[in-house]
Design a protein that fits this description.
The complex is a heterotrimer.
Chain A: H1 8-11, E1 26-30, E2 38-44, E3 47-57, H2 62-68, E4 84-91, H3 107-123, E5 133-142, H4 147-161, E6 170-177, E7 190-192, H5 196-201, E8 204-210, E9 215-221, E10 225-226, H6 227-261, H7 271-274
Parallel strand pairs in A: 4-5
Antiparallel strand pairs in A: 1-2, 2-3, 3-5, 6-7, 6-8, 8-9
Helix pairs in contact in A: 3-4
Chain B: H1 9-20, E1 36-40, E2 46-51, E3 54-65, E4 76-83, H2 98-112, E5 123-125, E6 129-141, H3 146-160, E7 162-163, E8 166-169, E9 172-175, E10 184-185, E11 193-200, E12 206-209, H4 213-218, E13 221-227, E14 232-238, E15 244-245, H5 246-278, H6 282-292
Parallel strand pairs in B: 4-6
Antiparallel strand pairs in B: 1-2, 2-3, 3-6, 5-6, 7-10, 8-9, 11-12, 11-13, 13-14
Helix pairs in contact in B: 2-3
Chain C: H1 10-20, E1 40-44, E2 52-58, E3 63-74, E4 109-114, H2 123-137, H3 141-145, E5 152-162, H4 171-184, E6 186-187, E7 208-209, E8 233-240, E9 243-246, H5 250-253, E10 258-266, E11 294-302, H6 328-341, H7 357-368, H8 373-382
Parallel strand pairs in C: 4-5
Antiparallel strand pairs in C: 1-2, 2-3, 3-5, 6-7, 8-9, 8-10, 10-11
Classes of the chains: A alpha+beta, B alpha+beta, C alpha+beta.
Chain lengths: 277, 293, 387
């Protein structure tokens, strides 16, 4: 079903009623699961993902690694002096409108796994944990666009919860442009945070930045777009990442405050010590 | 699983220090490619690309088959990449490594999803018969920058390829042999090329084009940008790695556009040369003159 | 399964085994009574994009999410009605008049289990999925609900995700989550009639539950049918010595003599009793209406990880240990024999051989006992708000 973009120029409102620079509602929780080292749940609009982090721990035996094979996906800096970051993504069959099953051998999934793994490996202080594995398992419960961005944000939160030292948050969001690639229309507005419908019809890209800086860890564009529009989209995307970072930071701080109030942890102890509970 | 031999610490240090003092081991400038050689085979659609010591062979082929049920009006177009143990002992047959998965995804996004090939023109009888165009990309030797070379080879082989001419009369489909009718080129819409940047330094401040295998082994991140000469981005992939300033990424994109225009001109020139070589006159000349109408 | 790689020393195993086989009551590491379940947190209807969904967190941190998706599918017409080979065992006379529309195919339900770190064709994953599917299809009641008309039926896709790493054998968790997801599953209301192409009501508020709600909700559909059917649950039971222990944790499973997955369903109608097949066990003849009547749907033995545990070395055979009496040589000979044949008190040895029939029978009986564990679990699940 083609997206009706004609109304945009009139009211400057998008299909779901947002303005060009508005994010969808982001709702996130950390420490959702008692057994895991780190866990998080993140909603960006109707895109819902869960993340569980195990480790840093001793790598699984060779038998395990062999069995998981390509499924466990990407490792970064596997052995040697740094911890390997292993990401596995499970896309639930019920996550999209029409049930469609993606095997774990799917190349798209493998690409996502490898992207998240190497994006986080650049922020995590993996050199502190030689010969160990940080295993990140992501579950996609519901998809409505900006999947990669949601996965990166959830993984970041879970790593924070797991108490793995990291440089800063890796925050991600998507940006797009209001008209299709065919039209070389200069007046096209950039858009922030695409939903599924917009992602299908409009050119867009996913950006992830490190912390508050303008430094881009991930930039993925999968649609045809005029090179002149890149700058606008990237600027909006980077700005969106800063907003997302602020939201993620608030989630972590709120949880921390709550844990202090409930007496789970004592005030003033470092993140490291929060793990001992 | 055999692993790629890693360069020694000394080698790594040497390459990085050289780059920091604006030097590359082979004396190139940072934004300079190694000489790109293209040679076409006797058959249509066979191309060998050499980029320094990286060698890639691409072969396009077509066969008549049944279209997918959900896309009755489209032909089928697939790109198959194979990284054989010939290129590096780290590659195993039937066991795709991360490099292979990322390479095939990039080619897929650059060439197939950007709509470079007009798949609708491959349809013969709606819902019943269509062409299946397939490009096999073989990596013969791996010395860095596989993606750019593989993409160039894929595009070159598709543009060089001729599929047999066909006609439909009273619902009967006839496929003509090259002797009967001159084969026809594919419906081609635009030629996308990949340009891969490698980043070095703590903040990814050093950007280098066409990294060799050794340079790839020590890089902290990479970004592949696919463009065509009309200035359309087909795909950008900076899949993780050390974060890089947004502004320098924009700069990289504009330099990439210049390189893509050069690639495009080079390929046009090579194709024209090859066409001239094949144009021998005689019966073939007559037939091709007919096609020129 | 990581539950199969419990890293416990033979001494620890021996201690666990000894405390779990204490009479009259076993001493469990977490202080539960033998029939007590671990506390759990459950919620349903968490994903609006599905027909039904549920999430359960056990107190040990294991967590599962189940989503139900339904699609309309054309029913493959059998050559003759009589050649249908579906399960007719749980049939009641009430269904006789609906003869021609009675059964559904077992391929109307597709179940997939996803366990992080495991391939989907891994034997453990497949086995888990099969056990859950078997229980659901055992009485043929479920597929009957999926029938739309003579030509179409609903195809149900059940996707079972284990979110946490598999800390304990996840079967009970997955089964309970599936149970809740199915209870919360709703299908659009059918607007068309007879065998015409199905047309559904767009209004989701008007949708009907796959498992109709009981009449304490004001919109009870069937006045005469007091007991509303529920999907089956599969419970994990194990035996150590003569003790029967429910919902074993990972450490407990590591010393199990025998472990069983028992699937229990609820009798649909209270009016008639008919023992259809040998799988059918009626616990209470003519029980009072309102009381739940349980029936056994399937029993599967689970290979307990205890069989793979390393044995301890008794002092008698331990050459490193020098007893005050006897020469080392005599000891090794004696010891070799002891190792083969006898159990030495306090030294762990993996259980060998199968379970006694008596124990198996006791296990099953204990599950189905009136007011027993299955009752308790179903009661507990009933208390979950199915919003």
């Amino acid at each position: 079903m083609p997206l009706d973009t004609s109304s945009y120029s009139l009211a400057l409102l998008r299909v779901d009623g947002r303005r060009w620079n508005e994010l969808r509602r982001i709702n996130a929780q950390i420490r959702t699961q008692a057994a895991a080292d780190g866990s998080s749940y993140l909603e960006m609009g109707h895109t819902k993902v869960m993340c569980v982090v195990t480790g840093p721990s001793e790598p699984f035996g060779p038998a395990r690694v062999g069995r998981t094979g390509a499924g466990a996906g990407a490792t970064a800096g596997a052995s040697g002096g740094e911890a390997g970051v292993v990401v596995s993504i499970v896309v639930a069959g019920f996550s999209s409108v029409d049930r469609k099953r993606r095997g774990r051998g799917d190349k798209r999934i493998q690409e996502l796994q490898s992207t998240i793994s190497s994006a986080l490996a650049a922020s995590l202080h993996t050199h502190l944990f030689p010969h160990s594995t940080i295993s990140i398992s992501l579950h996609v419960l519901s998809q409505d666009g900006s999947l990669l961005a949601a996965l990166i944000n959830a993984a970041t939160l879970a790593c924070v919860d797991a108490g793995i030292p990291m440089t800063d948050y890796v925050a991600a969001c998507t940006a797009g442009s209001t008209s299709t690639y065919a039209a070389n229309d200069e007046s096209a507005d950039p858009l922030l945070d695409l939903n599924h419908q917009e992602e299908q019809e409009l050119p867009g890209l996913t950006v992830a930045t490190l912390g508050d800086s303008d430094r881009v860890a991930v930039l993925v564009c999968e649609s045809r777009v005029q090179v002149s529009r890149l700058e606008g989209m990237l600027a909006v995307g980077v700005d969106g990442c800063k907003q997302v970072r602020a939201i993620l930071d608030r989630v972590v701080r709120d949880k921390g405050r709550k844990m202090v109030q409930e007496g789970t942890v004592q005030k003033g102890v470092g993140l490291e010590d929060m793990e001992v509970d | 699983m055999p692993r790629e031999a890693e360069p020694s610490l000394n080698e790594k240090q040497f390459v990085i220090q050289a780059l920091q003092s604006n030097l590359r081991l082979d004396g190139r400038k940072f934004d300079q490619y190694r000489p790109l050689e293209v040679s076409f085979g006797e058959q249509y659609g066979v191309v060998e690309v050499k980029l320094g010591k990286t060698r890639i062979l691409a072969k396009a082929s077509a066969e008549v088959t049944v279209p997918y049920v959900d896309r009755p009006l489209d032909g089928i177009f697939t790109i198959a990449t194979e990284l054989s143990p010939m290129a590096s002992p780290a590659f195993e047959v039937n066991r795709p490594t991360e490099t292979e998965v990322l390479l095939s995804r990039l080619l897929e996004k650059t060439v197939r999803r950007s709509g470079a090939l007009d798949t609708e023109s491959l349809c013969l009888v709606a819902g019943q018969k269509c062409w299946h165009v397939r490009v096999d990309v073989h990596i013969l030797s791996h010395d860095g920058d596989l993606i750019d070379a593989a993409c160039f080879a894929t595009v070159a082989s598709l543009r060089h390829f001729r599929k047999p001419d066909t006609s439909i009369e009273n619902g009967v489909l006839t496929v003509y042999t090259p002797a009967e009718r001159e084969p026809v080129p594919l419906g081609w819409l635009h030629s996308p090329f990949c340009v891969t940047w490698s980043f070095y330094g703590d903040e990814g401040e050093i950007a280098v084009l066409d990294a060799t295998w050794l340079e790839e082994a020590v890089r902290v991140g990479s970004c592949t940008i696919s463009l065509n000469r009309h200035g359309e981005i087909c795909q950008i992939a900076k899949l993780g790695g050390t974060p890089v300033e947004a502004l320098s990424l924009l700069q990289c994109t504009s330099i990439a556009l210049v390189r893509v225009k050069e690639f495009s001109a080079l390929l046009d020139k090579k194709l024209a040369e090859d066409a001239k070589r094949r144009d021998r006159g005689g019966l073939l000349a007559e037939l091709s003159a007919e096609n020129d109408r | 399964m990581s539950s199969q790689h419990v890293l416990l020393s033979p001494a620890e195993l021996s201690y666990l085994h000894a405390s779990l086989s204490l009479q009259p009551l076993p001493l469990r590491p977490d202080g539960r009574s033998p029939t007590q379940f671990r506390p759990l947190v459950a919620e349903t209807g968490i994903l609006p994009g599905t027909n039904g969904s549920a999430r359960i967190c056990f107190a040990d941190g294991t967590e599962a999410i189940v989503g139900v998706k339904a699609e309309v599918e054309r029913t493959v017409q059998p050559f003759t009605q009589d050649t249908q080979t579906t399960q007719d065992e749980g049939e009641t006379p009430a269904e006789d008049e609906r003869r021609k529309e009675e059964v559904g195919g077992s391929d109307w339900v597709e179940m997939t289990v996803e366990i992080p770190g495991y391939r989907d064709d891994d034997p453990t994953t497949v086995f888990l999925g099969q056990m859950l599917q078997e229980a659901l299809l055992a009485d043929g009641e479920f597929t009957k609900r999926l029938r739309i008309n003579g030509r179409f039926h609903w195809k149900i896709y059940l996707d079972i995700l284990l979110i946490s790493p598999p800390l304990s054998y996840p079967l009970p968790l997955l089964s309970l989550t599936t149970h809740l997801a199915l209870l919360s599953a709703r299908l659009p209301r059918l607007k068309s009639e007879g065998d015409e192409d199905p047309l559904f009501d767009d209004d989701w508020a008007a949708s009907t539950y796959v498992y109709p709600r009981d009449n304490n909700k004001k919109d009870g559909k069937d006045g005469n049918n007091k007991v509303v059917a529920r999907p089956p649950v599969t419970l994990l039971v194990m035996a150590v010595g003569n003790n029967i222990i429910f919902d074993p944790a990972r450490e407990e499973l590591a010393v199990a003599d025998v472990a069983l997955a028992v699937s229990v369903g609820e009798e649909t109608t209270t009016t008639t009793t008919q023992t259809g097949g040998d799988d059918d066990v009626d616990m209470e003849e003519g029980s009072t209406p309102g009381k739940r009547r349980l029936r056994l749907l399937s029993v599967r033995t689970i290979d307990p990880p205890s069989r793979l545990t390393p044995p301890g070395v008794p002092n008698a055979t331990n050459t490193a240990y020098t007893a005050p009496t006897g020469t080392a040589e005599a000891k090794t000979q004696d010891g070799a024999r002891t190792l083969e044949t006898e159990r030495v008190e306090g030294v762990w040895k993996a259980p060998r051989g199968g379970a006694k029939v008596m124990v198996m029978a006791a296990l099953v009986a204990k599950v189905l006992e009136k007011g027993g564990v299955a009752d308790e679990v179903l009661d507990g699940l009933e208390a979950v708000d199915l919003g």
